[in-house]
Amino acid sequence: MKKHKSSILAQQSGFTLIELIVVMTISVLLLLISGLGIGTFFRTYKELTAWTKLQQDALNCLNIIKNGVPVGMGTDVEYIGVVNAVTMELTNTTTNVATGLKVTPPSALDIYKFDNAHFYLYNGAVRCTYVHHGVQAASPLYVFPKEEDLDDIIIDKFLFTKVNPEQNVYVVQVELDARIKTGADRYRMVKFKTKMAKK
Fold first, then answer.
1. 8 A C-beta contact, residue 141 and residue 127
2. Number of domains observed in the structure of the chain
3. How far apart are CA 75 and CA 43, in angstroms?
4. Distance separating alpha carbons of residues 84 and 115, to the nearest angstrom
5. Is residue 185 packed enough to be buried (19+ CB in 10 Å), middle (13-18) or exposed (0-12)?
6. What does residue 33 show for φ and ψ, rounded to 5 degrees?
7. N or C: which end of the chain has fewer CB within 10 A?
8. Is the model's pLDDT at 8 over the cut of 60?
9. Burial class (CB in 10 A: 0-12, 13-18, 19+), 39
10. pLDDT in tens, 118-134
11. Of residues 44, 51, 74, the one with CA closest to residue 153
12. Contact present, 84 and 106 (Cβ < 8 Å)
């Protein structure tokens, strides 16, 4: 009977303490590596999302300057921008380079001849004041960045340069450099340079 018991015990297999420690160590290392990989993935995803937003918002700003800021309400919405400007004037200027541009749209009535949209850089944001049908907007619009994004987006350059040789402004080159904060002392940048002409 004793021989029978010892033969049953001899046939049983299991893990030694060393094997268990090795398996646990490998499991912990795999968990750490996957955790680091997931952390890197989410950090990269956050950075790319912020950079994409910066690009979209900067392009939207340039499109608003070119195609016009929407003014008016309901069915009376008009756009005041470079493409439909009758006149353009550089503001805050030194020679042919400026940080502001005032555009005047065509006017059917004499009383609206002072309608305009003025795009300019102020306190780290591209702003726009406008007069529509003789009435000035109550407060300037935040064109880029939006007011809620001021803490994250920094504009490094916003300039208008007159391109045409004539005295009046017909063609301007717009430069917009900006960066967005993606982490502690980490930024992603965009740089745009484009020409816009009135018709």
1. yes
2. 1
3. 45
4. 13
5. exposed
6. -65, -45
7. N
8. no
9. exposed
10. 999 999 999 999 998 88
11. 51
12. yes
What's the domain range around 46?
41-197
Amino acid identity, position 100: G
Collapsed DSSP state (helix, strand, coil) of residue 53? helix
The kind and range of the H/E element at 187 are strand 186-197
In a domain, 77, yes or no: yes
CA trace torsion 128, 53, 85, 197 (10° rounding): 130
Structure token digits, residue 158:
């916003």
Give dist(CA 50, CA 52) in Å, integer. 5
In a domain, 164, yes or no: yes
Cα separation values, 176 from 39, 68, 159, 184, 190, Å: 33, 17, 7, 24, 8
User: Which amino acid is present at 165?
Assistant: P
139-164: pLDDT as tens digits:
999 999 999 999 999 999 999 999 99
* Alpha-carbon separation of residue 185 from 54, 55, 119, 144, 190 (angstroms): 17, 20, 30, 22, 17
The amino acid at residue 105 is P
Residue 35 included in any domain: no
> How many Å apart are CA 98 and CA 92, to the nearest integer?
5
Q: Spell out the residues 6+ positions from residue 24 whose beta carbon is closer than 8 angstroms to its own.
A: none
Is position 12 within any domain? no
